[in-house]
Each structure stands twice: as C-alpha cells, then as structure tokens.
Design goal:
Layout lengths: L26 H16 L4 H6 L5 E10 L5 E12 L5 E8 L4 H18 L4 E8 L7 H15 L8 E5 L5 H15 L23 H12 L1 H4 L7 E5 L3 H12 L3 E7 L2 E4 L6 H10 L15 E3 L1 H5 L5 E4 L18 E3 L8 H9 L3 E3 L1 H4 L2 H15 L5 H26 L3 H18 L11
Helix pairs in contact: 1-3, 1-15, 3-15, 4-5, 6-8, 6-13, 6-14, 13-14, 14-15
Length: about 450
C-alpha cells in the first residue's frame, strides 16, 4: 500500500482512511454522521428516525474488469451506495478518482440524502464511483470501464429506484454511455435512469453549470445578511473544474473580484483580479497548468492549493475534494465567508475552529445542491417527454436555491447555531416527516 500524499489535500489518500473496528466504517463516514448528531441536539427526532438514518440502505462493491487497448485485462474497484429512500428514489453522482473507496462513497451518499431534503427535492441519497486515474486511460478504455460498471450495478439502479449522475472526472459523454448500456441490458428506452446526459440523449439545458450556479444563487440571496457588496468582495476558488469554473465566471459577471484560482496542478494569485474566461481557455490548452496564463493585472503569483486556502480574501470557495480545511490549517483561514461547493471540504474539527473565528460557512448540503436540483429537472423532463428552455431551468433553480437559503438562515437565527447545523435541521424536518408517516413506536404504542 502506497503512503504517498494526495496532490489535492497533502494528506493520505482517502483509500487509506482508517476503518473503525467496531462498525466497519471509515473516518469520513463517521465524521459525516457527527454533523447529524450535532443537529439532533438542537432538533430532537424520534428514535425510529435516528435508527433509520444510522446506516446505508444498501451498499455494493464490485470488480470492474475491462480489456485494455494493449490486450491485457485490468480490474478496478467500483462501488454504489443507496443511503435512504424515504422521500423518493435515491439520487447521486458517479465519480472516477484514484481516492474512491467505500468509506468515501458512503459519506457522499449520506450527504446527498440531506442535500436533497434541505432543498426539497423528492429524492433520497446515493453515490457511486470507481477507483481509477482517468488520465491513464484511453477514450475507448474509459468507455469500456463505464459500460462494464453499469453492467455490474444494473440491478441496483433504475428511474424509479436509483438515478446516477456525473461527478468528479465523469461528464455527459460518460453518462450517455452508461444510459445506453442500461437500455441495452433492459432492452428498452429509459432516459430517466441517468441524468447529466448529452442534450441529444435527453439531457437538460442548464445542467452543466447547475452546481456552480446554485452556489452563486445562495451567496447572492444572502448578500444583505452577510453584508457583502459584490464590487468590493474578493474571492478565491479552489478547484477550477466544472463546478469551480462556472462559479468563478458567474461571480465575475456579477461584479465580484476573483483573485485566486487553483486546480490539481497548483494555482495563481493576483490581487488585481483574474478573468476566469481566458484562464479557462489557457488551462485547457496548456495541460492544466495555470501559471503563465492571462490575468487582468499581469502580476500573478504561483501558489499551491494549500496556500490558496489561507489567502486574505472575503469569500473562499473550496470546489475540489473533501477534507481540505482541517484542524491543521483552519486557524490560518482568513476568509470571512466560506462557500462550500465541494462535498465535505471541511472536517468537524475545523468547523469548531472556524466558528470560534467568526467565519460563516455556507455548507455543502445547501451550497452545492444546484446540481441535484437540475438533475431532478432533467429526470422530470425525461419522465414527461416535455423539455424546458434554459431560462426556465435557471429560473426554477434560482427559486429553489434562494428559498432554501432563506429557510436555513432563519433556522440558524432561531436556534442560535451555525449555518451547517441549521441546514441539517431543515433536512431533518423533511426526513422525519417522511419516515414518521409510516408510523413510529409511539404510534404503535410500544415502549
């Protein structure tokens, strides 16, 4: 087993997360459950509800064996977890990354359960992934990997059961292959089985930038509460992929000053401001190297991902991997606001430090729920066969995200808690209603 550090986090890769001997669960999943435990202190729930949310509904680990272009066979570890389906079919992305492991997938499925609930989308939570470095695969190998993975999990998914979507290092092309493979296996046409597909295969307009746009919707709705003026607000974005880029460009368009961006290769910092549009073009043509790219001021400094987190900015946007802000660096965070567009970028230990420093954290289960919301729109369009214009998609997304943002803010004020706990409370209200609708021990008059 390798002990090299992750280029994204500087910590041990997630597959080496220690497993708890008592329950078989790794640190990331137990860390995720700690957030629920904190919310329950403010919003007590029925023991029946707590028991149902304790473990995933189902977990599947598979071996994805494909023929490589050189004729050899290679096996990859794959996973799919359905956490809870009390509020509807489960929903969650599929990520391709060398850090993917069961602990991570369980935590992501857990977060997705609460994410869907906090914005009111009628889904439960799920997640999937394959432990692979996609940069080592050819396009034909990537297609074979994607199709074989669906063959392995086909009995676990379906448009009324579990609906995958894209995530890290998967895109609409990959989703198209997966949807096609499912149709072949089931011998029919089921466009609603997977979302994030190409438009020609039943995808939705507005899906590509939905996660970043949803985060911007939340931040902009809370501008008055957060006492920020776009033209006087500096932003650093960690992660310049699909989510981080669209967040950066939308904030740039709204007048915010983007002063730092980074990707897996490192980052750049320019206090005079960075235009994300030409920077994205530069990154795509220079093998993800940001240094030397065009900036507005031309005075950029080359920095690391870790350096970016500590910059003196107003808003910090972690949009890369989980566990970026930890007890080891939380004391050095200078941002006044953190907009979490990645899943689980902040550990529970770091939360305590950030709260003590007076930093407002807009939590992932609210901030990055735009993706699953527009995936819901895509699924709805697939089920009805009626498709919306992009303006309608964006308008519907904005209404949902802004309503959820206001609800969470009001709950935070009501319970005098941090914003993350408030988001979990909002989600718990909806989950409790769904679970209790089937009856609890109190209904059946049991002790």
């Amino acid at each position: 087993m390798t002990t090299s550090t992750s280029p994204e986090t500087g910590a041990l890769p997630a597959q080496e997360a220690p497993i708890d001997a008592a329950d078989g669960h790794g640190k990331l999943f137990r860390d995720a459950r700690n957030r629920l435990n904190k919310a329950i202190q403010y919003f007590p729930i029925s023991p029946d509800v707590e028991e149902q949310l304790k473990y995933p509904k189902s977990s599947l680990a598979v071996s994805v064996v494909i023929r490589m272009d050189n004729g050899s066979r290679r096996a990859f570890k794959g996973f799919r977890v359905r956490y809870d389906d009390s509020r509807g079919p489960t929903k969650g992305g599929i990520r391709y990354h060398q850090s993917v492991n069961l602990d991570e997938v369980m935590a992501l499925a857990f977060w997705m359960t609460f994410k869907c609930a906090v914005v009111g989308v009628p889904y439960g939570g799920a997640k999937g992934g394959i432990c692979v470095d996609t940069k080592e695969l050819s396009k034909t190998e990537l297609e074979r990997l994607s199709r074989t993975y669906i063959e392995q999990i086909a009995d676990m998914i379906g448009p009324e059961v579990d609906i995958p979507a894209p995530d890290m290092y998967t895109n609409e092309m990959v989703m198209g292959w997966m949807a096609d493979q499912y149709n072949r296996i089931k011998r029919g046409k089921y466009p609603g089985v997977i979302t994030g597909k190409p438009l020609a295969l039943g995808g939705s307009l507005g899906r590509t930038d939905a996660t970043g746009r949803g985060g911007v919707n939340v931040l902009r709705r809370l501008e008055e509460h957060l006492q920020i003026i776009p033209e006087k607000t500096t932003v650093a974005v960690q992660g310049f992929g699909n989510v981080g880029y669209h967040c950066a460009r939308l904030l740039h368009d709204a007048g915010y000053k983007i002063v730092a961006i980074s990707n897996s290769e490192g980052g750049i910092y320019d206090p005079s401001g960075i235009n994300p549009y030409p920077m994205k073009e530069w990154e795509q043509t220079h093998k993800e190297v940001l240094a030397g790219g065009p900036t507005l001021g031309g005075k950029h400094q080359v920095i690391s991902n870790e350096d970016l987190l500590k910059l003196p900015v107003d808003v910090l946007v972690p949009a890369a991997l989980e566990n970026q802000i930890t007890i080891n660096n939380a004391h050095e965070i200078q941002a006044r606001i953190i907009l979490e567009l990645a899943n689980g970028p902040t550990t529970t230990g770091a939360d305590v430090i950030l709260e003590q420093k007076g930093i407002t954290v807009i939590p992932d289960i609210l901030a990055n729920a735009g993706g699953v919301t527009v995936s819901y729109f895509e699924w709805t369009q697939n089920q009805t066969g009626y498709y919306w214009e992009v303006e309608e998609v964006n308008d519907r997304l904005q209404k949902i995200m802004e309503k959820a943002a206001v609800n969470v803010w009001q709950t935070m004020k009501e319970h005098k808690c941090d914003m993350r706990t408030a988001a979990y409370i909002e989600a718990l209200k909806k989950l409790s209603e769904a679970i209790e609708a089937h009856g609890t021990r109190y209904y059946f008059n049991l002790p």
